Amino acid sequence: MLDTLRYRDFRFIWMATVLSTSSRWMEQVAAAWLVLQLTNSPFLVGVAMAFRTAGWVLGPMGGIAADRVDRRLLLVFAQSANLLQSCVMLTLVVTGNVQVWHVLALASVSGLAAAVDWPTRTVLMADMVDRPLLVNAMAFNRMAQDVTQIAGPLLGGSFIALFGFPGAYGLMVATNVAGIAMTLLARTPGASPAAITASVWKDLGQGLDHVKRNRTAQGILLLAALANFAGFTYGQTLLPIVARDIFKTGPMGLGVLMTGLGIGSLAASLIVASRYNLAGKGALMLASFAAWPVMLVLLAVSPWYALSFFILLLTGAVQSLTMTTTTSLLLTCIPDDMKGRVMGVRAFMIGTLPLGNLMAGAGAAVIGTRLATAANAAIMGATVLAIGLAYRELRRLE
Length: 398
Description:
- The chain is mostly helical.
- It has a single domain (3-396), classed as Growth Hormone, Chain: A, CATH 1.20.1250.
- Helices cover 83% and strands 0% of the residues.
- It is built from 16 helices and no strands.
- The chain has helices at residues 8-39, 42-54, 59-68, 71-95, 100-127, 134-185, 193-197, 200-213, 215-231, 233-246, 251-274, 281-301, 305-332, 339-349, 352-366, 369-390.
């Protein structure tokens, strides 16, 4: 289970992931709660989360960059953008000058940084281990996100409740600085000269062309797009509204609910990390995607805070299984020299998240949070069935 931790550089990048991702989770809680406090508008929460994720449409460019330049330095660049965003927000909340447009504009910076960070970090971690340990490495990568999904929202919500928004954003600045330090301690090679000589547009075309010819990659990428459009929007846009308007709780209560997702996700990641030679990964991926809309239906009808927390534990486990299997199966079905470009296309699939956030926010404002959640479940369930039937080869992936 701990095989990948034998690699020195992997350990440093993993610790950098824990620190940097903690800051992103805290920022998600703070941005959503700040918009609710400033506007009292569920729709504008969706708009803020859409701005926060809109930069993902540039994911292919981030993947191309990951194939062309030193990946460690590229990762530092993305982390530095997040640090700058946190510093500006800290200044605004300390001086009392923060307005909604500030939150939206700076949330877009976070999205642009993520479009570079995610494909670069994923390929960098894959490069640091031997191929038989790839699933284990991706499970550890997911585990880092899961740990921070527990700690980040809880810390963010608690610091807002205890010290106000200045305390929360101050903590984000500190974690971003520490994450950059960990990344700089890693020693990684730059991109090969062959990758650097090709034009950016040719690289982009090669990545898209490879996906066009690879049906396995197509099916996985469609599932990833669906997860972001109809699945992750609950935790980003709808859950803050549920916490405040249905369960009548504050930022700390929201943070606790979000940790439910993290605890469930971490438990699933630990299981996958310990069983990285697990057979039937394709079938497991499809089963996990099919279970996700069921969890959304249960959340839509849950009348109690404690019950919702328990359902969120299960939802987090399902989310972790889907993301770990999609990433590891995608990396194993593409050649090494195409990893960055195809993972950039994978990051582009996250570009469906802002549209999903906008629709979730609008749905919550028009038909209510519960019906909006049920609608997402219906969309997700029907689309998973369609993809499973159209790409039957996914079930046979190992």
